Amino acid sequence: MIETKVVTYKNERLMQFGIKQEQKNGWSVLSTDTTDRGRSGLKTVGLAVIFLPLALLGKRKAGFMITYQRPAGIYSEEKTHPRWVNILTYAVLTIIILMMIASTCS
Questions:
Q1: Domain-by-domain residue ranges, the chain?
Q2: How far apart are CA 64 and CA 31, in angstroms?
Q3: Given a cut of 60, is residue 48 above it in pLDDT?
């Protein structure tokens, strides 16, 4: 049995990073497509105020849709936490250690 999943990225830098992360978890790239993300509302309104025909130029940049594939059931997914969770964890541990040091000194 083969697992398949589709992930959409907003830009090429995020796409390249995502591909590297997924390859570490055993996924291989099956296909790559660009996606049309529609028009940006803020750009469209701003251009309409300046010059109405230019409003059609307010299109968003294309995204990327990657389809991954791997054999089922032989890999365990790494659970990655957002960066702020790691920072918060280290801050709490630092405070606990400092409190322990302060209590032994007094």
A1: 2-80
A2: 10
A3: yes
Inform me whether the pLDDT recorded for 69 exceeds 80: yes
- Averaged confidence pLDDT in the chain: 80
pLDDT band, very low/low/confident/very high, at 92 (cuts 50, 70, 90): very high
* Token pair listed for 101: 């040091």
Nearest one of 20, 24, 5, 4 to 77, comparing CA atoms: 24
Which SS3 state, helix, strand or coil, does residue 73 take?
coil
Question: Which residues make Cβ contacts (< 8 Å) with residue 35, sequence separation at least 6?
Answer: 8, 62, 63, 64, 65
pLDDT of residue 52: 65
Distances (CA, A) of 51 to 45, 48, 58: 10, 5, 12
Q: How far is the C-alpha of 47 from the C-alpha of 62, rounded, in Å? A: 20
